[in-house]
Amino acid sequence: MNAAIPLPAAPWTPAEFERQLRAQGAAYHIHHPFNVMLNGGRARPEQVRGWVANRYAYQVAIPIKDAAVLSNCPDRAVRRAWIQRVLDHDGHADDPGGIEAWLRLAEAVGLTREEVEDQRHVVPGVRFAVDAYVHFARRRPWQEAVCASLTELFAPAIHRQRLAGWPEHYPWIDPAGLQYFRNRVGQARRDVEQGLAVTLDHFRSVEQQQRALAVLRFKLDVLWAMNDAMAVRYGVTA
Ligand SMILES: O=C(O)c1cc(C(=O)O)c2c(n1)C(=O)C(=O)c1cc(C(=O)O)[nH]c1-2
């Protein structure tokens, strides 16, 4: 923790605590130069493909991470709601799910399913960052893993950026491939409601609230490190 910033004398109110959590969005990967390039329309096709192929490692890890949260959580009411996240990604009944939607995005940008599913393009830094998130969810108290998912507070904005810009920037991508981003805007909003309720309720003391901020910063670092690794591999076009 930064010693120059004194601890608050008393716990924040829930509203102030939520404000402090949201303020961490300044370090969201929406601001990473690689993402700024991608969503600003400056990426070459191989950079778009590199991002989609690497992000697949994150997509397939998310339901594993969520299953880790379930396995650590003794609260039946939380599990009942949380299990929806696994279904969102893996699919259920007629819904093919988010991983399938990501594979359709991959095909829309010119990748084959095979080269994405076998993760041949995934660079070491992305793999290590994704593994760190799954490991965190397995080892830490489930409330901390819930708190770590709160980067989703900032995700609808980045999905909307893609939906607004990509069709114009990248006319060579079939817009049907962008369905994943459309689905996530609503899903993330619902996820955040649940994640925030758990976090505001659980992290109550000054020390716990500081811990929640540190957990959220860890997750922001996971996403930032993924972008760093992709920027090194694929470059950032000025
Ligand atoms: O495209 C993105 O920038 C982005 C970011 C995040 C995030 O902030 O963690 C998620 C997603 N997408 C996403 O699609 C998703 O399903 C998701 C689940 C989670 C999580 O931590 O449980 N984050 C995210």
From TrEMBL:
One Pfam family it belongs to: TENA_THI-4
EC number from the UniProt entry: 1.3.3.11
Oxidoreductase is among the record's keywords: yes
Pathway(s) this gene product operates in, as recorded in its UniProt entry: Cofactor biosynthesis; pyrroloquinoline quinone biosynthesis
UniProt keywords, alphabetically: Oxidoreductase, PQQ biosynthesis
Coiled coil segments of this chain: none
GO MF, one example: pyrroloquinoline-quinone synthase activity
Keyword Transferase tagged: no
Domain of life: Bacteria
Domain Thiaminase-2/PQQC: start-end pairs: 21-228
General function of this protein: Ring cyclization and eight-electron oxidation of 3a-(2-amino-2-carboxyethyl)-4,5-dioxo-4,5,6,7,8,9-hexahydroquinoline-7,9-dicarboxylic-acid to PQQ.
Protein's name in the database: Pyrroloquinoline-quinone synthase
Source organism of the structure: Dokdonella koreensis DS-123
